[in-house]
Amino acid sequence: MARRVHQPLENEEFDFILTVADGPVLVLFVGTWPKAVDACKKMDAVVSEAAERYAGRLTAVKVDMTRCPEPVRRYGVTGAPTVVLLKAGEVAASETGVMDGPALQAFLESNL
User: Is the whole model's pTM more than 0.90, yes or no?
Assistant: First the structure.
């Protein structure tokens, strides 16, 4: 993913990103198990494009569900890929499954 997308390696790093983020946070939860890999790779590019498009309006984060299990539990994520839009640390909206660029843009526009 582009440099605009943070990729925490542990729960504490994810929490730190949330504390320093200025504004909403778009989180992409990805899985590394075989059935999830292809779908999650598709979402990588879509979220990367959104991070560029919405630079200055949101912070984008990609979370490996295995490496950072605490946010997965905290936000009730049950599948991968899942996008969650956080405002002030609380879930404003979420969507599970692959989305194309226009669908993610519509998701963000209706929830930002």
Answer: yes
Helix (H, G, I), strand (E, B) or coil at 95: strand
Q: In what order do the strands lie in the sheet with 90-96?
A: 5-6, 59-64, 25-30, 82-87, 90-96
**DSSP codes joined into one string, 32-90:** -SHHHHHHHHHHHHHHHHHHHHTBTTBEEEEEETTT-HHHHHHTT--SSSEEEEEETTE
Cα 58 versus chain centre, distance: 11
Per-residue pLDDT of the chain (112 residues), as tens digits, is: 445 899 999 999 999 999 999 899 999 999 998 999 999 999 999 999 999 999 999 999 999 999 999 999 999 999 999 999 999 989 999 999 999 999 999 999 999 9
Q: Is the Cβ–Cβ distance between 32 and 66 less than 8 Å?
A: yes
- Rounded-to-integer distance, Cα 99 and Cα 53, Å: 16
